[in-house]
């Protein structure tokens, strides 16, 4: 690599960091994550303002009591004492409202640090006039450097505050030309370091956010059936646990277990592709009918589907199950000389709705399904009794 390419590459890297091009790329790639990042940093800024407001208020009081009783020192201490509680209250109100007002927080942040800069300069000037070390000036620098920066414009704002504060302090205390050059160098160094820190912090945060989203997506996929998009067994179990843990208004719950009649024979006759198509069509029938009653629908086995329905009377559950049976029958998916049909088992209503109820409901629904199968299939069973429709079509292969 020659010198010219090295220099041009270094300039491009510097522009990339200072102008926060990574942030623009992240905003384009994932606007929601980028907005969350900005709000996260602004909330951290708000927390720092609250902490520094308490600290600057105490410092202002101490300055008024024990500091140099010059006009400059009294004005500076008065600004610190008056501005700190005001901005603490404004920041708390904007940050901890029902919905945080982030634009207001940004404006409050600007005004707060300007007021602290003015107060710190005045107090530091009074200390210098009394031949004392300007502690407030050093404290102000430490406070400003610790503030996380949201954007390039905020970096420029704080760099300008540092530059003006340093220059005004140097002029009022009659510092030399070298001091002003040092102030400019410090400002440039701050601008660069703040940009690098912002770049690193945001890149780490956005990277962590992508990992969290990916993990969440993997968990969701692991709980879904690949063919139908319904919940699988682990997914249904977890959803049931969430439902029983969060909802205290469940009066009763029941399980509807659906099984495609003679599906092994269908698979043998038609092959895997046609079998998958049949499963998908049956799944759509179930989804269309049950969507108004429940979201807990699962492909429970190769040819079995499970629905969990809450707060329905026994007669309503039986009617829902009959609608499901009829919808598959009406679909009229060819099966040999007949059509595809389903048998349904309905669990007894359980008033004990907790984790242990899940296994009991499934066990009872499976027993009812066996009764429906033994009663000629293409029917449903509940409370050990088969319900056979007068116009029931016989299950193919039976």
Task: Find the structural class using helix and strand composition.
Answer: alpha+beta
Number of domains: 2
Task: Going across the biggest sheet, name each strand in turn.
Answer: 2-3-1-6-7-8
Integer average pLDDT: 79
Helical run tally: 12
Characterization of the model:
- The chain is an alpha+beta fold.
- The chain folds into two domains: 3-218, no CATH class; 233-387, Alpha-Beta Plaits (2-Layer Sandwich).
- Helix content is 68%, strand content 8%.
- The strands form two sheets. Strands 2-3-1-6-7-8 form a six-stranded mixed β-sheet, sandwiched between helices. It has a two-stranded antiparallel ribbon with strand order 4-5.
- A hairpin with a 4-residue loop joins β2 and β3.
Would you kindly provide a brief summary of this structure?
The protein has 398 residues and is an alpha+beta fold. The chain has two domains: 3-218, no CATH class; 233-387, 2-Layer Sandwich (Alpha-Beta Plaits).
Top keywords for this entry?
12 helices, elongated, 2 domains, Alpha-Beta Plaits, 8 strands, alpha+beta
Question: Which helices and strands occur, and which strands form pairs?
Answer:
Elements (H helix, E strand, L loop, with lengths): L2 H16 L2 H9 L1 H36 L4 H25 L6 H28 L5 H11 L6 H21 L4 H46 L10 H14 L6 E8 L2 H28 L6 E3 L4 E7 L3 H18 L2 E2 L2 E2 L2 E5 L8 H20 L5 E3 L2 E3 L11
Parallel strand pairs: 6-7
Antiparallel strand pairs: 1-3, 1-6, 2-3, 4-5, 7-8
Helix pairs in contact: 2-3, 3-4, 3-5, 4-5, 5-6, 5-7, 7-8, 10-11
């Amino acid at each position: 690599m020659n010198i010219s390419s090295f220099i041009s590459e270094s300039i491009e890297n510097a522009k990339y960091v200072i102008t926060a091009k990574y942030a623009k790329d992240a905003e384009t790639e994932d606007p929601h994550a980028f907005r969350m990042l900005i709000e996260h940093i602004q909330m951290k800024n708000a927390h720092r303002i609250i902490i520094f407001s308490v600290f600057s208020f105490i410092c202002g009081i101490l300055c008024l009591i024990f500091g140099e009783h010059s006009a400059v020192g009294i004005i500076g201490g008065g600004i610190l004492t008056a501005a700190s509680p005001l901005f603490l209250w404004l920041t708390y109100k904007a940050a901890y409202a029902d919905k945080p007002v982030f634009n207001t927080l940004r404006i409050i942040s600007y005004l707060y640090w300007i007021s602290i800069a003015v107060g710190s300069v005045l107090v530091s000037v009074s200390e210098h006039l009394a031949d004392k070390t300007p502690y407030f000036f050093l404290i102000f620098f430490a406070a400003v450097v610790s503030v996380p920066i949201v954007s390039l414009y905020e970096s420029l704002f704080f760099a300008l505050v540092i530059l003006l504060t340093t220059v005004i302090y140097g002029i009022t205390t009659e510092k030399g030309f070298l001091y002003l050059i040092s102030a400019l160098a410090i400002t440039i160094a701050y601008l660069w370091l703040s940009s690098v820190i912002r770049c690193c912090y945001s890149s780490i945060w956005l990277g962590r956010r992508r990992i969290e989203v990916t993990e969440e997506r993997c968990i969701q996929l692991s709980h879904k059936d690949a063919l139908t998009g319904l919940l699988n067994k682990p997914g249904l179990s977890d959803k049931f646990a969430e439902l029983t843990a969060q909802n205290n208004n469940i009066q009763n719950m029941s399980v509807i277990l659906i099984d495609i009649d003679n599906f092994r024979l269908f698979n043998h006759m038609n092959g895997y592709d046609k079998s998958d198509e049949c499963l998908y069509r049956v799944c759509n029938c179930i989804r269309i009918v049950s969507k108004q009653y429940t979201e807990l629908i699962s492909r429970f086995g190769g040819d079995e589907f499970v629905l969990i329905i809450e707060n329905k009377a026994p007669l309503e559950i039986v009617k829902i199950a009959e609608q499901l049976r009829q919808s598959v029958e009406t679909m009229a998916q060819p099966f040999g000389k007949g059509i595809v049909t389903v048998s349904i088992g309905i669990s007894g209503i359980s008033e004990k709705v907790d984790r242990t109820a899940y296994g009991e409901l499934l066990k009872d629904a499976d027993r009812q399904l066996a009764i429906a199968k033994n009663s000629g299939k293409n029917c449903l069973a509940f409370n050990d009794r088969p319900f056979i429709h007068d116009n029931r079509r016989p299950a193919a292969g039976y």
